[in-house]
Structures are given as C-alpha cells and as structure tokens.
Design goal:
single chain, alpha+beta, CBS-domain, three-stranded mixed sheet, 6 helices, about 35% helix
Length: about 190
C-alpha cells in the first residue's frame, strides 16, 4: 500500500451529521435516505461521537428498545477517534486495525471535513496493487526471455501473485524466491 497518501486524497467529504439529542429513529431515517451506515454525532457543532448501524442493532434492536425513545448521545461511541487530513494513510490504517475501528472522522481546525472507512483504505490498496502488477508486467514484457536467472528488483510474483522485494526471471516468469525454488524443483523431476 502506498504510504505517502494523505487522508484528504482518500476521505469521503460528505458526512452525515446529527445532534446528540436526535433520536435514533430520526438518525436511522437519515442514514437510510443518504444510504450511509453511520452518523457523526455533534454537540454544539463539535463532533463528539459516532453511531453506526451496528450500534443501533446491538444497543436497541437486540434489546427490543424503541428507537424513537433513545437519543444518539445514549448509544454513540465516544470518545471519538479522529484523524487530520494530512495524516498518512498507512498510519491511520494501523490505528484502525489496532483499535478495531471501521470509520474515522477527519477533523481540520476543529471542523468535521470528512470521514475515512476501512473500505476506502482497501479500495486504495487494491488500486495500488493493480498498478504495481501492471508495472511489473510491463517491465517483464520489455525484458527478453534470455535473461533467465537475472534479478528484477521488487514487485508482484507472476506465479503466486504476492509482493516480493526480490524477483527473478525463471521459466519466463518474474517470480519470488519461493516460487523460483518450486520451479527449480519441478524442473528436476
């Protein structure tokens, strides 16, 4: 994954917001209307918590509590874990993994400016992997087949699809060390 991408390039700028005194029913209707699965909770305009569909299910639906009787402040996740638009994608991905967090609101100068979700990070990661694979393929196509055994640096192994810091041409493929050994063993049989 590219580690120098700032969150501002990945975050979703349209964020559903609701006051702490909004009922869960009203919030759920907004979430449905805007086709999102979370709402950032505000207190006097400041982001203080977040409520997700999962929170609604675990705190209300599973307990058979009427959503029109509960305010967001009662079920919101707080304290709110946030990030800045200049934070790097890799550090936020680690923070999310460590804290088992799926969404992080992005705050700039005390104002909510976006939100980044685990799916946003996965999307960027797979795009980067695809680009890297294409670059490796282009490099392999430029090489002639008579470079058997020469090193080509890092990239995606054409046999197993994994990233390797050391690729080598073997049997016409750019392969990692493990796949190179497999190909060599298969050739000995």
């Amino acid at each position: 994954m590219e580690t120098d991408i700032p969150l501002r390039d990945v975050m979703v700028r349209e964020v559903l917001k609701g006051d702490i005194y909004l009922t869960v029913l009203e919030a759920a209707k907004l979430m449905r209307r805007y086709k999102v699965d979370s709402i950032v909770v505000l207190d006097h305009g400041d982001p203080v918590g977040i409520v997700t569909e999962g929170d609604i299910i675990s705190e209300l639906v599973s307990k058979d509590i009427k959503p029109s009787t509960v305010k967001l402040k009662a079920i919101m996740t707080t304290p709110l874990v946030t990030a800045a638009p200049t934070d790097r994608l890799s550090s936020i991905a680690k923070k999310m993994t460590k804290g088992r967090i799926r969404k992080i609101p992005v705050i700039d100068d005390g104002k909510l400016v976006g939100i980044v979700a685990d799916v946003d990070i996965l999307s960027v990661s797979s795009e980067m992997t695809s680009i890297l694979a294409e670059l490796v393929e282009m490099k392999a196509e430029r090489e002639t087949l008579d470079i058997e055994g020469e090193s080509a640096g890092q990239g995606i192994c054409e046999k197993c699809g994994g990233f390797s810091h050391y690729l080598e041409m073997k049997a016409g493929l750019m392969v990692c060390e493990s796949c190179k050994e497999e190909l060599e063993m298969a050739g000995e049989d």
